[in-house]
Amino acid sequence: MLGAVLLLLALARPVCPSPASVASRRAEALKKLLEVFGMEDPPPPPAHFKQPPQYMVDLFNTVANADGVTKNPDILEGNTVRSFLDKTHSEEMRFLFVLSSVAKNEKILTAELHLFRLWPRVTDGPKRHHFCQVSVYQVLEKDNPDTPGGKKLLAARLVSLQTSGWEVFAITPAVRDWTEDESSNQGLLVTVQGLGGSPLDPPPLQFASGRGHHESKKPMLVLFTDDGRRGASLPTAGFPGESHVPGTVPLSRSARSLDRLQPCQRHPLSVDFEEIGWSGWIISPRGYNAFHCKGSCPFPLGENMRPTNHATVQSIINALKLSEGVSSPCCVPDKLYSINLLYFDDDENVVLKQYDDMVAGSCGCH
């Protein structure tokens, strides 16, 4: 008899998970979360403090609010914007951008060369130019770009010599060539000429180079792509052997009963990137509110429950016990919003990426 009592007490005693099982559970959870963000491993934080390009920060603030939630889903044509800094760091107007981080499945939409136009040199003599012609070439022969067939014209325009600021040139065909064949990437060449194509020596117009200029003025390639990921969301089922989300305290039976009595509604669900160890490579946001849906869908379903027609019929069948094994409708998200992440990738390039179906906008009975 005493043995049976001791056995019952042992079975009734709550079993605390071992540190090893908690660590394993956390690792599995973070792996699943990385899959949602389209990554196999988290990028390492930059070796040294790096200021992201102001263009990328401004673009993030235009596309998303402070929590990363998309303000207007039509602003971006695709779902990914990548920025690359020039790797030549030379004073000559030759530029090279390494695009190895672009995945093969990404569709190239638009590529832009961003150059910061410096204030023009002061020239001697009465003759002063007000405009000059700037041309951007794709280099085909690295050592002989000026020979016939050594380069291909991508863009050309007249540029004022009266101001300074950013100039943006479309270079999409070159980037498509480079992503299809990495060895074809021989860089870009930029020339400055007079209105009739005459050489200007020294050229009155200069662009900021990779050396000797502020980080915010460095030459940059901005690439707009789409990786084809749509509607990516967390698995609805829990992890094997789990009855609650890792890191949370299971609710008592009375608390769970109380939850079931509450009507279906949206509740906060904070995702803190610092808490899960991702703050080193994510620039913005620091976290976001994903929200979650919780509550009952009792018969009869009112309009405030935002029920579908199917849920209404299911609720009736369940209430009248017209069919065995039919449960009441579930409280689930019926509107989902996308979020945006601004982050450093494996090569320390800054990426803006949009992820669909990440925030529960509202809840309903389905």
TrEMBL record:
Query: What GO CC annotations are associated with the protein?
Result: extracellular space
Keyword annotations for this protein, in alphabetical order, are: Disulfide bond, Glycoprotein, Growth factor, Secreted, Signal
InterPro entries linked: Cystine-knot_cytokine, TGF-b_C, TGF-b_propeptide, TGF-beta-rel, TGFb_CS
**Which residues does UniProt assign to the signal peptide?**
1-17
One Pfam family for this entry, by name?
TGF_beta
| GO MF term (any one) | growth factor activity
Asked whether the keyword Cell cycle is assigned, the reply is no
- Domain (TGF-beta family profile) ranges: 253-366
Query: Where does this one sit in the cell?
Result: Secreted
Family, as annotated: Belongs to the TGF-beta family.
User: What is the protein name stated in its UniProt record?
Assistant: TGF-beta family profile domain-containing protein
